[in-house]
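Hey L., structure's done. Input below.
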Amino acid sequence: MTGDTISIDELDIPRVVKEIFASNGIHSLWPPQSQAVRAGILGEGSMVVSAPTSSGKTLIAELMFTKHLLSSPGKAIYLVPLRALASQKQEELQKWEKAGLRTVSSTGDFDRFDRWLSNYDLIIQTYEKCDSILRHRDQADWLKDVSVVIADEVHLVGDQNRGPTLEVVLTRLKRMNPETRFLALSATISNARDIASWLGAKLVVSNWRPVPLYQGVYYDSNIYFEDGRLAALNHEVEREEPVVSLCLDTVKGGGQALVFASTRRQAVSTAKKFLGKISLDPREKAVVQKLASRVSEADDATPLTEELSKLLRTGVGFHHAGLPFSARTVVEQAFKNRSIKVLVSTTTLAAGLNLPARRVVVYDLTRYEFGLGRQRLPVLEYHQMAGRAGRPGLDSYGEAVLIAKRRDEIHELFEEYVHSEPETLEPNLTDEKTMLPHVLSTVASGYAVDEQGLLNFFLETFSGKLVSKYLISKSLNKALEFLLSNGFIAEYGQTLLPTPFGKKSSDLYLHPVTALLIAEAKKYEPDVESDSHFLHLICLPLEVPKPRVSQTERDELSIELDEVEKELPVSLESYADTVSEFSLDPYEDYINAWKGAKVLEAWCNEMSEANIEQSLGVQPGDLYQLYTSAAWVARGVSSLLQTLGANRKIVSAYSTYSLRIESGIKKELVPLVSLRGIGRVRARMLYKMGIKTLADVAKAPVEKLTQLRGVTPSLALGIKEEASKRASTDQST
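Output:
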């Protein structure tokens, strides 16, 4: 044990853990990891680690959960903010299966509580998925075995959208088992001590990075670095526009460049600026040709992925949430493998995905905020982007560069971003609108049974520790009044109990306002059964992301709505009355939901992703977010309407829509897609072959099923066996 370095062999951890670290090339700890060991990460108690991006915080988590889970019974929950991060983290932590720790990622539908998780030791979840399971704790016995909780990106407690859920999740987990050990991993923040105090944890703060980071501002072909150096760009590239010059300068020096843009359109247009400007050797050309073909020939190829494919052939890529998952995966792997020389991304890459580059260029420091116009990016977000600079093991340094448009802006950018401390994390669980779903779930799941119990719970949250008891109590009373007056909770003396409506709403992970919208449709009896009319209700809730609507579209959609509004499950007037406190512009949201309904209608009638992008302007990544959210909400609509005693025909219709939305199919294919290995494309092919029912599948010759693309004889036998079982079950019922 010397200085800041501790050898893995010196640690008091199981031999198998040392062997797995060694097999992954890890023989000693980095300084933040050593700090955590000295502070007691291998002992008892909880810890908060605040350190820069790429400083090895995941290994600190590995030390904690392996030591604890391999020496005593228990389970670990690893919380992350995004599904993509959960997939990445599972891949990263899968190696601990060799030590006997069964590892799984659970990020799916929020209305399903996944009993099968009891079979695993290390469970990776998004904040929201964990929240939904905590609401079903009576059906998730394994929760009582949780002894370690890792909260990644815990600085997101300061995020207006995700922060309240993270606060509630961590507070519930603390309450369920006071002996649970917490490890909160955070970017460098100003008030990490507040997080540590809230969790009753030791605090480890480090500014160490695996490679030095040099931050600077570009102006007029020069980079002004914070240490006083002035770096002139390679004379071959200085005549290009700034973002191109900065990246080509790095590429010519053997490095990679990562550009952060503020919008998807800007990301794509900026990537196109590099066309024909990057030199690749024959081997590199062959590699990127294969990558481009993988993207353009994929089943989910669209005009957007075709644009990406063209760029990939030149060693350039872009990355944003509109791309299909498969294309994003190709881009991420290609950048890691150094096949892509310049990658232009929206801030999705800054939120935890591990894709470092020698030089990071922040192209635009503003972002459009609805109702506020263009706003400057937070300092914390800049530091996360800058933290992507420098590839450990490949670069001896990393550079993060801002672009000044005027000479006097150089000093301004240094003061506002480079030299500024990240913002203090502010509590967000402080007003009745934010509290509403969490007050309901706290009562519905039995975490509190009276007003005092509710107050005590919310005083234990991060917000409750930082703001006055008066403010928490006042907001709590308003939220409770809303839930009582709208029939979610009933009061019996001093005891608070959920009504069947409230309990079902909470169990389905529906926001109370969404539940009220669904209740509005209880007596819906359409004169004409139209997909878009039914689907409009599914697209109204806060939980469903609305597609973007251009001004031209808005006018057309508005005219359509005027004609059909009387036939929709929820009128504009009822919608506006219900969401008035939660929407800046109810009419705009109502129109956007109508576009969402039309997109889902096209999807459910088996229009391809490429055609949906071309005709409706919805990119594959957005379509995926829309239909996955809508399928879950459709199940919720059906279940809640059943609880409310709605017409069985309507309940059944929404149940069927959930299945159609999930797979993007017409009604006749619903039975076929219930079979493992049969999706929308294979189901339609079977139907065209005259195989239309489960019984037909069971009787079909293996040779006929293997005509389907990708279906092997063994898969065909499995499909037939499952179809036979399902068909006989259907007959018996």
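The CA atoms of residues 273 and 568 lie 46 Å apart. The radius of gyration is 27 Å.

-- N.
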